[in-house]
Each structure stands twice: as C-alpha cells, then as structure tokens.
Amino acid sequence: MSTQRQYPVVPAPRFDVPPEESVERVRAFADTMALRRTVRDFSERPVPRGVIEHAIRAAATAPSGANLQPWRFVVVTDPERKRLLRDAAEREEREFYERRASREWLDALAPLGTDWRKPFLEDASAVIVVFEVHKGPETPRPYYVKESVGIAVGFLLAGLHQAGLATLTHTPSPMRFLNEVCDRPQEERAYVVIPVGYPADDAMVPDIARKQMDEVAVWT
Ligand SMILES: Cc1cc2nc3c(=O)[nH]c(=O)nc-3n(C[C@H](O)[C@H](O)[C@H](O)COP(=O)(O)O)c2cc1C
Questions:
Q1: 174 cis-preceded (ω within 30 degrees of 0)
Q2: pTM assigned to the model
Q3: Which of these, 5, 84, 130, 178, has the minimum number of CB atoms within 10 Å of its CB?
Q4: Residue 81 lies inside a defined structural domain of this protein
Q5: If you take atom 30 of ligand 1, which residue's CA is the nearest one?
Q6: Range of the domain at 42
Q7: How many angstroms is it from 194 CA to the middle of ligand 1?
Q8: Count of alpha carbons within 13 angstroms of residue 64, beta-carbon side
Q9: Among 30-39, 86-95, 109-118, 197-206, which is the least confidently predicted range?
Q10: Strand 166-167, strand 126-133: pairing
C-alpha cells in the first residue's frame, strides 16, 4: 500500500460553454491566433506592466510534469539591463553565425533574413527571459521540464497576442550568459527570450504560409 500522502480533492472548476457557442468561440480564438506573427522591429511605446503580469499569470496555469511548475519568467525592462542583454547576445550570435552554425542551419535561416544583430533586445518595451527550473538547493528534481515550459510559453505568447502585443520567440545559442545578465542561479537554465512590445509602424514580416489542415491533422 502506498504511504504517499495525497492531495485533498476539490470539485473540478467549471467552465461551461453552451454547445451552440463553442464552435464560434474556438473559431474566434483561432482567427485571432492566425494574426500572430513573429515581429522583429519594435516601437519604443511602453507596455503596461499589468498586461505582462496577466499574461504570465496565464502562462503559469499551464499543466506541468507532477505539477512541479518548473518555470521562471524574468521581465527585463530596465534600459541598462536590456543593453547588457543585447551586447552579450550579439557577442554569442556573432560567433554562432560566423563560426559555429552549420551550413545546413544557415541555409534554413537564410530566407528569414536574420543575422547576428539583435536591436529588438533593446527596442522592445520588455524582454521576458523564460528559464527552466532544475534541481537545486531549494527546488526538487522536476520531470518533463522542456515539455512543461514549452506549454507555458505557448500560453504566454497566446496571452500577449490577445492583448494586442507583438512578440519574438528568440533562442540565442548558447544561452548560459543569460544567468549572469538576469541574476539567476545555476539551477535555472534559459529556455527562450521573448521581446514584447508594439510593432514599429514600418514593421515587416516574411511572407510565409502555414500548412493546411489536412497537412497537420489526421483523423482516424
Ligand atoms: C523555438 C523557436 C525558436 C526561434 N528562434 C528564433 C530566433 O532566434 N530568431 C528569430 O528571429 N526568430 C526565431 N523564431 C521565430 C521563427 O522564425 C518563426 O516563428 C517562424 O518563422 C514562423 O513565423 P511566425 O512566428 O511569424 O508565424 C523561433 C521560433 C521558435 C518556435
């Protein structure tokens, strides 16, 4: 017999949607999400702190392996720290683009027109650095960290988009420098960097297509 203590149980929260409304609601959600694009040119218009707080609140409701919630969201708004972040990221990225990246990877990136320059790390009103939280003095060993943090980041991007904000999902490589820039302990490992703000008036995005329903879904 298990000696593990169990959580007490409570009634499952209800979020009832009348059946006649459910298609319309999810259609509206999908239509809104279809307008999300990765933006790389931001205006300096500030983002209200409350918007980011609620988006993080939504992210932190994500399911996680054994409910260990292995995430930390560091919101960088201080201009000096954003400058440090940009300087350090550009050093790493320059090394990546000019030396470390394979020809294959550079070819995959070429159509997007990205390079080592990262002005968005300073221009965006806020930069959210998402960390995975691993085993440390105060934290237990988590399970399914990448899966859990990935789902939380999905919620975060969806929440920010719902608030009319633009985001960029940025993955500098490697990311260890982010611990120092963000003052985070070693058991936290950066997962993604998300500049958040309003798009610049002249922001452009690559004209890419999304796969059709029959290419992404299989019904059986
Ligand atoms: C895990 C991940 C890492 C990414 N890393 C970068 C990045 O480092 N720099 C960048 O400019 N875009 C990055 N992107 C954005 C993708 O290029 C972008 O999502 C893709 O081209 C589709 O465009 P869309 O987001 O506008 O639909 C990343 C996206 C994901 C999901």
A1: yes
A2: 0.94
A3: 5
A4: yes
A5: 169
A6: 38-198
A7: 10
A8: 22
A9: 109-118
A10: unpaired
